[in-house]
Every structure is written in structure tokens, then in C-alpha cells.
Specification:
The chain has no helices and 11 strands.
Length: 115
């Protein structure tokens, strides 16, 4: 599985961005998909994940109520809608895919939130 993340950029605090992650392969719907992020000087952290059928989504507390993860299995794409952004959301965002663990990673897309 190859993953290509896009949609990052510079946004003012309070604004919104939507990240996309396009996946190759014919088994996309089998994979749990997730977003992680790594802020400057910090370790990579989990943001959100979604099951193959979209039946279950999980978020880290810091983004609950502001971010929405979704997927379109017909387009082999997972999305992260980010609302009410704050400077603390500034990071490189990575998408990941896996079955029992996240074995496949995209290259990351930079999100910068200015105050």
C-alpha cells in the first residue's frame, strides 16, 4: 500500500483545512486508516483513526469535537477535516494504514497555524 497525503498549508487560528490521503491498491477498504502528527521538537502522536467500514472512529482528546476523520472507499481516500485550528495544531500530518498495526505510512503534509 502506498499513501500520498495532501492538503496541508498555512492557515490562521480559527480556520479550517481538509487533508486527504490517497491510497494505492485494491484492498483499501480492508485497512484501518489513521492520521498522526508530529510537531516541531515533539514525538509523533496519534490523531484519529477509522475502520474500513467507517463504523468506528476514534480521536485523541486534543482534537475531539474539532476534527473529523472520514473515508471514501470508492476513491481509496481518507480525509481529515480540521476545524477551529489553533497554533498547537501546527505539525506534519501523516496518514497511516494497517490491519493489526500501522505498517504503511505516507510522506506527511505540513500544517501551519498562525496566531
Amino acid at each position: 500500500v502506498q499513501l500520498q497525503a495532501s492538503g496541508g498549508g498555512l492557515v490562521q487560528a480559527g480556520g479550517s483545512l481538509r487533508l486527504s490521503c490517497a491510497a494505492s491498491g485494491r484492498t483499501f477498504s480492508s485497512y484501518v486508516m489513521a492520521w498522526f502528527r508530529q510537531a516541531p521538537g515533539k514525538e509523533r502522536e496519534f490523531v484519529a483513526r477509522i475502520t474500513g467500514s467507517s463504523a468506528t472512529t476514534v480521536y485523541t482528546d486534543a482534537v475531539t469535537g474539532r476534527f473529523i476523520i472520514s473515508r471514501d472507499n470508492a476513491k481509496n481516500t481518507v480525509y481529515l477535516q480540521m476545524n477551529s485550528l489553533t497554533p498547537e495544531d501546527t505539525a506534519v500530518y501523516y496518514c497511516a494504514a494497517g490491519l493489526n498495526s500501522f505498517n504503511y505510512w505516507g510522506q506527511g503534509t505540513l500544517v501551519t497555524v498562525s496566531s
